């Protein structure tokens, strides 16, 4: 099951206390920054849950 990003909780990368930690942790390239926003590339997600476990805003979950 692919992850879901709650954009209200997430905000923008520049406002993230983890400074885009989810992007840095994703070895599959499923999370990217596009114009300051977090974007999911679902076909790259391997359900490792690292982004969910490490999001300081609890903005990422299973959908």
Automatic annotation (TrEMBL):
Start and end residues of each 4Fe-4S ferredoxin-type domain: 36-63
Record InterPro entries: 4Fe4S_Fe-S-bd, 4Fe4S_Fe_S_CS
Pfam families for this protein: Fer4
Superkingdom to which the source organism belongs: Archaea
One MF annotation (Gene Ontology) recorded for this entry: oxidoreductase activity
PROSITE patterns in alphabetical order: 4FE4S_FER_1, 4FE4S_FER_2
Protein name: 4Fe-4S binding protein
Species name: Methanobacterium subterraneum
